[in-house]
Structure formats: C-alpha cells, structure tokens
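Quick entry between incubations.
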Amino acid sequence: MKKLFVILAAVLALPAQAALNVLATVPEWAALAQEIAGDKIKVSSATTALQDPHHIDARPSLIARARNADLLLATGAELEVGWLPVVQRESGNPRIQSGQPGYFEAAGAVRMLEVPARLDRADGDVHAAGNPHIQTDPRNMLAVGEALAARLAQVDPANAAAYRTAYAAFADRWRAQIKRWEAQAAPLKGVAVVSQHKAWAYLYDWLGMREVAALEPKPGVEPSLAHLALVRDQAATSRPRMVIRAAYNSARPAEWFAREAKVSAVVLPFTVGAPEAADLTALFETTVQRLLKGL
Amino acid sequence: MNHVSLFALAAAGALSAFPAVAADADLQSLRDEIAQMRKSYEQRIESLEKRLVQAESTSTQAKAAADKAATQTARAGEAKANAFNPEIGLVLQGQAKRMKDVPERAVSGYWPAGHEHGDKRGLSLEHSELMLSANIDPNFRGVSRFGVTGDGEVEVEEASVSTLGLGNGFTVRAGRFASDIGYQNAQHPHEWDFADATLMQKVLFGNEGYRQDGVQLKWLAPTPFLLQFGAEVGRGAGFPGTDRNKNGSGAGAIFVKTGGDVGASNAWQAGLSLLHTKASDRAAHFEDTGGVEAESFFSGKSRTAIADFVWKWAPNGNASDRSLKLQGEVFRRTENGTWRCDDADAANATTCTGGAALGDLSTRQSGGYASAVFQFMPKWRAGYRHDWLAKGTKSFDSATVFGLLDAGNHYFADFKPRKDSVMLDWSNSEFSRLRLQYSRDRAMMGVTDNQVTLQYIMSLGAHGAHKF
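Done. Structure below.
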C-alpha cells in the first residue's frame, strides 16, 4: 500500500509539459493549429482521415489524452455529439469542459450552410446548427484560424504575440493559395455532381459546383439499393459529371453508381492525413486536382 | 491642388528638356525642385495605394463581420430553444420471447438475487427508460433515469450529480448510480449486445446490476494510456447486501481500469474490481424436508472480485463498415456468515417453524462469460456469447441443514450452469435496433430451455453518448 502511494505521488508530481497540450477531434484542426502555433504546442488528433467523425468510440486512449489537454479543438455543430461529451466528462479535466476557454469550436467562427428549417430525426442525421463539414472550404481556414489564434493567445498569453504573427503569415500564404486554386478550379464552376454523404456543401459553395443528389437516402443512413437505383434514374435528367465520396466512406455505393450512370467516381481526401493529403495545402491541392480529373 | 502640381511637374519636365541655356546654378536649383516634386508625388501615390488597400481590407472585414453576426444570430436562436432545457431522452423496449414455463426459475447452486424482470413469456413490454440530464452550473452535472415497467412500476435507476471542475483528473459523483465495478454493470439494458443479462450478472446482482446509493471518487492518472482508480461507498441495500438501517456506509467498492490503443485499428480496456458488503437476514425461498415452502436468511460478509476485458477492432478504426468486439468478465464471490430458516407463510407449518438456526455458511463461487459481436456489413451484427458458472464450494453443517431443508433444493445442486446465445441484430440508425436471439439456457439443473427472443430497442430525444 505504501509503495502504491509513493508511485501515485511520483506520477502526480510529473513536471508540467512546457508546450501547450492540444487535442483536436479531427485532423484538420490539428493541422491548422500546427500551422499557427508550430512548436509552441504539442498537438494530436483524436481521429484519422480514414475514420467517420460521426461514429467514434469514446476510447480509453482518448480519455487519457483529454485528461492532459490544455485545449480541446472540436468542430462543433454536433459533429462529435456521439462521443466527445463522454470524453470530456470522463477526463476529469475542468479546462476542456464546454464553456471554458480550453474548449474551442471551429463551427462558431464560420457561416454555416444547410441549417435545417425543421428538426426531425425522420430527416436522418440532421445537425441543428447546420452542415458540420466546414473544412472542405479553404476560406473557412482563415476564419477558423483567426479565432483559433485568438484562443491560443487567451489560453497561453505568454506566446500571444507569436500566435498572432504566425497567423498573419499563414493567412497571407493561404490567401495566395486560395487564389491559385480558384484559378485552377475555374472549369468546375456550375458542374453537376452526386455526393455519397452530404459532406461537401462548403466545397461546392466555394467552387460553385451543384449537388444534384446524394447516395445516402438521408444524411447518415447507409445507401440502399432502392435509393441508388432512384438516383441513377434521376441522373438521366440531372446529368451529373461525377460522384464524390470521402476517403473514409465505403467504396461500393459510389463505384456502383459510377458504373451504372457512366460518370467518374472521385475520391476526395476530406481531411488531412488521407492519401496524398499530408497537410492542409496538400489537402486542397489534391481535392482540386482530383475534381479536375473527374471532369 | 493635384492638377496644379501636375501642371507644374509638366512645366518642370519641359524646362529640364530645354537646351542648356540657363546658368548651371539655375539648372541645379531646378533639378532639386523636380527631385523634390517627384519625391512628394511618390509619397502621395504611396499613401493613396495604402488607403486603397485599407479600404479593400475593411470591406472584407465588413463581410467577415457580417458573416460572424449572421452566425451569432443563428447561435442565439439555437440557444433560445435549448439553453435551459435539460436533455430528455426515452428508450423504448419491447420483445416477444418463447421459452419454457418453469415455475420458480432459478440458477442452480446460487442464492437467488431478487426477482427477475424481462423474463415474461410471449409478447411483453420491457421497461422504458426516461432520461433527463443537464449541466447544473459550470461545476456540476445532474443525471436521472427512470425505468417504467409494463406493469406501471416506476423505478429510480439513476439520480446522481457529478463534478465537472475538480481538476487533476478527479471526479466525484453522488446519489444513485450504476456501480463502475466490472464492465457490463454500468451499462443500461439498451446498451447490451444481447437481449438478456449474463448469468454472471444475474447471480451476482440480479438482472438490473449493482447500484450504489452513495458516493464515488474517481481519479484518472496523467498517463498516455488510460489508468483510472475509483472508490465507492454506498448504502449497500442491493443484493448481495441488504438494507441494515445503520449510520455510515453499508458497501464499499474499489476498482482500477486501464486501456489504450494498439495501432489505429484496435482499442482495449481491462479492469479489476472489488465489492465488499454485508447482508443481514438476506431472504430466499427453500423447501423444507417435507416439500413445504420455507424461508432461509443469510447474515454475513460478501466479497466479490471481478476482472473484465474488452477488445474492439475495426479496420483503421472505422467501425461504419465492419467491426469486432470481444468482451469477457470473470468473477469470484466469497461469503462468510451464518444462516437460519423460518416459515415462509405463518399458515403453513414447516420443519423451521418458530425459527431454526442452520449454523455457519461459507461459500466460494466463480464464473463468467465471453462474447464476440461481429458487424459484418453496415447495419448488421451477429454475436455469440457463452456463459458459465462453476458450482464452487459451500461449507455448512450438513447434518443440521439437511435435517431441516430438502437436500433437493436447487441451492444444493451439484451442477455447473451454462448458457449459449447467438444473436443477429439490425440497426437502421444509431437510434433504432431490432434483434433476434436464440439461447440454449441450462442454468437450472434438469432443464434445457431453448429460448427465442425478438426484441426492439428504440431511443428518441437526446441520447447520451455511450462509454467505450
């Protein structure tokens, strides 16, 4: 028993980490925080690009990581509602509870799209605050990045100036890249597409593409054969050019539709860490290139 | 102003191009003047450019501000609808079950743990679960769950408050809550992977699991993997203890849980728990030597140790397509005390009439279960569970006991209870599930019961996130 207390005391007395400990729910916010804060923070993501951010288990490792976090970066808009509240509560960490400075929601910084006019689960997995997949529009990185830099400055005032400067540098670089991507993506304007999951509202809004149908009959409900056939029949009139899915989505529905409707199937990285999307720049680089290839 | 200077500049330019008729000094002064003018123009142009840039950025800022305002308006609307409303959820459960009609159904060799719910034959409404929860203030959260049975009984399954802001990994919970001993005990029936409780849970705590009316302290170590220590003190009224009308605590539990990831595809958790409680006149039905129903009462200490293990696999950690869950728990229970018997019904005399001491009773029993649930395609899962209980050891004065009670009572059976279950379930979304289960139940000596259950579990309203 005595030994146990000695070990406990030793563990409790572990020196605090010098770098700010940041836990992001999804890889895009981890990458954005890294761009802004560099080596001032130690950041990790709770999920990878190959996981569906709606369906994550409150794994023991996540609770352990949340316990030590100084700042929790979430998307918000109920994206993580199925697992993050448990992680927050189980962590015993008051810093990252909702409403504390250590809890940051990216969705709070951007203009939300597809805010539902009515809330009914008969409509599937609807999010009251709007479509939560805001990271598919690079312009949102500026808005979120600015809010994030301000939050980092608040949580870690010693490095406040460094965060602001780093954000300004990032923003300059990022604006130039957006201009370049927009020029490259000009041929995509007005192009009709079919999505597997309604995950691309912000991407379409950015590039002026038109979503004519989704393979999921309702958001979050797996595509059924009957619904797939219906979308295929509609395709005769709506004439989509491609069907788009995220790297984490099952390949079967999109491939079936591509074959049946004779359109190209495009797999987009959706977030950082997917194949050919090692960082934020590569994420949009690959997204634009693959969309152009799908034409 | 500008055009005057422009004219001057043009004039100066004309002069400077004029053949060198003027004196050198004049020329020099003219040149200086021109240089000055040029400088002042460059400055002005520069300042104009700056203003232009500023104007541009103000307009983007204005747009951003407008966006932000729009976002905030949307947020405000949302807050209006929800801010002070607790999360309300309801779980609806019902089933059709085909099984044998066994009077006084029991698990052979084990002290019966209270009445059994959900074991009705035919169509029945299982209990519906109403949940209300909310943050009370920045430091506290409250949770309540009420189980409403088909017969109209309302049971307070959980009514607890817990801290949010203690820090350093500490959490305190007080009230009534499902004890965190073992793995399945803290899960509510709608979270189970099978339609019924495990044999282990049935004999340890009864169908409903072990609940504490008390206080729980948990501490999470600052380690890169999960390492959690917990302690609970409670009233101890639930089986295997009894309500003893005393000051202080009637039951104590401690547990440690650890867990982590193996690569991106695997996650696991393991735990060890101990529960220590006491019983005073814990009652159970027995038959006396003449086959008349009598009642036995146990008084003494009860200690339960549980080891649990869960392993989850999903390709790349993405469980939407395929996943596998392996789960198992084993227990050992030791009880030491004395027992006695008496009439169950004053009108029916038994060998125990007037009350008879049965002497000391010491038991040591063990068992467990192991299950595997495989999601083979979206929405569909199949699972298998094996339940086993050892007959364990019981020591008592058999001359006294069998002089009063029938040796044929199920409690004395020399038997190892077993149960095998296979299930198939389909979930249209995370809020609805239909399940078909077949069980071969050999928990009672001499009875092999082939059970078929068709069940629905639906939840509406706010549905709290589940633990691992």
